[in-house]
């Protein structure tokens, strides 16, 4: 207990503990961001494959729209792909 008090009284030790804790939080945040980005990349790939199978070769603007879309928009397009007749109708382009 006295050793703990001694260490917590040391300013450099407290600073290092703070820096380590912040680094661990940053690492977890980066890993979560990477996981979400990986999931979105997978969603984009699947949607692009479905679009290609349904409508044939895709124009360049489709890739741009897929890249700019968030998860909610990608899911909506995936849900709507079976009910639309054209790419323009799906993307309201």
Question: What would you say this structure looks like, in words?
Answer:
It is a single chain. With 93 residues, this protein is an all-alpha fold. Helix content is 83%, strand content 0%. It has helices spanning 2-9, 11-55, 60-68, 71-80, 87-91. Helix 2 (11-55) packs parallel to helix 4 (71-80). It is rod-shaped, with a radius of gyration of 24 Å.
What is the total number of structural domains? 1
Strand content: under 5%
Gyration radius, in Å: 24 Å
What ranges have pLDDT less than 50 throughout 5 or more consecutive residues?
none
Q: What characteristic shape results from the CA principal axes?
A: rod-shaped
Secondary-structure element order, as H and E? HHHHH
* Helical stretch tally: 5
Straight-line N-to-C gap: 68 Å
Average pLDDT rating: 84
* Portion in helices: over 70%
Class of secondary structure makeup: mainly alpha
Number of strands: 0
Instruction: Please state the oligomeric state of the protein chains shown.
Output: single chain
Main beta sheet, described?
Answer: none
Offer a few descriptive terms.
93 residues, mainly alpha, 5 helices, 83% helix
Topology (elements, then pairings):
Blueprint: H1 2-9, H2 11-55, H3 60-68, H4 71-80, H5 87-91
